[in-house]
Amino acid sequence: MTLSLITVNVGAPSLDRAHRQLRWLAARPEEVLVLTETKATPGSQFLAEAFTTAGYAVTFPEHAPGELGVMIVSKLRTAPDPLGAALDYLPARAAGVVVDTTDGPLRVVGAYVPSRDATAEKTDRKKTWLQRFGRALDATASEVPLLLLGDLNVLEPSHTPAHRGQFAPFEYAFYSSLPDRHGLLDLFRHLHPDRVEHSWARRADLGYRYDHAHASRTLTERLTACEYVHETREPTADGNRLTDHSGLTVRLALTATSTLLTSDPTTAATPAEPEPTLF
Description:
- With 279 residues, the protein is α+β, with helices and mostly antiparallel strands.
- It has seven helices and 14 strands.
- It has helices at 15-26, 42-53, 83-86, 120-139, 169-180, 187-191, 217-220, and strands at residues 3-9, 32-39, 57-59, 68-74, 79-80, 94-101, 104-112, 146-151, 184-186, 200-203, 206-208, 211-216, 223-229, 247-252.
- The strands form three sheets. A six-stranded mixed β-sheet has the order 3-4-2-1-14-13. A six-stranded mixed β-sheet has the order 5-6-7-8-12-9.
- Helix 4 (120-139) links the parallel strand 7 and strand 8.
- Helix 1 (15-26) packs parallel to helix 2 and helix 4 packs parallel to helix 5.
- The N and C termini lie far apart (45 Å).
């Protein structure tokens, strides 16, 4: 059996775009969806409510006003991962769950690293978050394998193109710390050592591989696929895109042991659209 997951930056969607994203996400085969750049606004709340009503396990940390974060949506029964409680700075930007498999528990953590500009304020904010997130990973480290998915807003040091001068040493150091300090390998690079792909682009010739999947070394033995899904940022017939980021899928040769009974979230009742009664 295969356990599949996908991470997608949904771009703090408007309610209209969230409806379109829901239709796409509901049709995906993955059991676990890690959605980044969520926000405490009607679009993100609609996604959380629709999936919850349809029977999915939804982990959506409380977002402070104006703050961005992560939502994890699962067709599998989940338990809270300790990392969520361990992160003490901008905590909505990471969420974690534990799912059970026939090989034992699996930790799934989603992260949305703050972006920055050239200002000292935003640079310090990003640097502080990366430091605190690293500490949270250290504090919750265990023998249970961990899969980290999300928009990390950092590049690998050997990125093509190099984008020289756009990223600071502390940003490259965070990417390097994932394998060196935390034992989390870049799954896409593990399978595709030389492939150049990008998950976001200001221009077609200036792409960035911002969206990542890293995992404990033991999980690489179970890894069967790790691929970008670029259709999310391709214009549809009406000229709109679902988001400006590509999705990233991961497939592992693992068997989940506790699947939830879910229905189609696009037709499930939500508080905004109550189910009609028969009397």
